[in-house]
Design a protein that fits this description.
CATH class: Mainly Alpha
Order of helices and strands: HHHHEEHH
CATH topology: Four Helix Bundle (Hemerythrin (Met), subunit A)
CATH architecture: Up-down Bundle
Structural class: mainly alpha
Strand order of the largest sheet: 1-2
Number of helices: 6
Distance between the termini: 22 Å
Largest sheet: 2 strands, antiparallel
Helix content: 55-70%
Shape: globular
Oligomer: single chain
Strand content: under 5%
Length: 169
């Protein structure tokens, strides 16, 4: 039996956002202990053409709300993405966790075949059914940004490992 899209998304989003919050707590503690300017880490990137840590976290939060909203058939809320500090990022993750956590299984009924339209009305418009959206687009995008945020933190010397990335499951 195929799992519901609710059980394949909401618990996963919550687990990984919670783990990301803990990784950021360790990162903030590290820069504080070492007397490093927090912006040095918040604006760090793995490559010059990649987005910095702060933006990776924002995009992960954006994908979490987008996945839950689209699968539930509700409008995706617009968040400003103005975070610049560790406290701001923690508040954003808390907001995303609360938002995603407010959905229930019933809201996802029929979402496997619900049409999801990405970038509507643009040349990049893409139409997918819910299951294809979740498994082929939404979750891979979400994990990319979670993983990149983790990698930026680890690359900058913070002592984290796979257990930190995975969080509690």
């Amino acid at each position: 039996m195929t799992p519901s899209l609710y059980s394949a998304s909401v618990p996963v989003l919550k687990q990984m956002l919670t783990a990301l919050s803990e990784v950021l707590k360790k990162a903030e503690a590290h820069v504080s202990e070492k007397n490093i300017d927090p912006n040095a880490l918040l604006q760090a990137r793995l490559a010059l053409d990649m987005l910095p840590l702060v933006r990776q976290v924002q995009i992960a939060a954006d994908f979490s709300k987008g996945i839950a909203s689209r699968l539930a058939g509700v409008e995706v809320p617009s968040w400003a993405d103005t975070e610049v500090t560790f406290d701001d990022l923690q508040a954003l993750i808390a907001k995303a966790l609360a938002y995603v956590g407010a959905f229930d299984t019933a809201q996802f009924e029929g979402s496997e075949n619900r049409e999801i339209v990405l970038r509507p009305g643009t040349p990049k418009e893409k139409r997918l059914i819910g299951s294809a959206y979740l498994y082929s687009y939404g979750l891979p995008q979400f994990f990319f940004h979670i993983t990149t945020a983790y990698a930026i933190v680890r690359h900058n010397g913070i002592d984290i490992g796979k257990r930190d990335y995975m969080g509690t499951y």
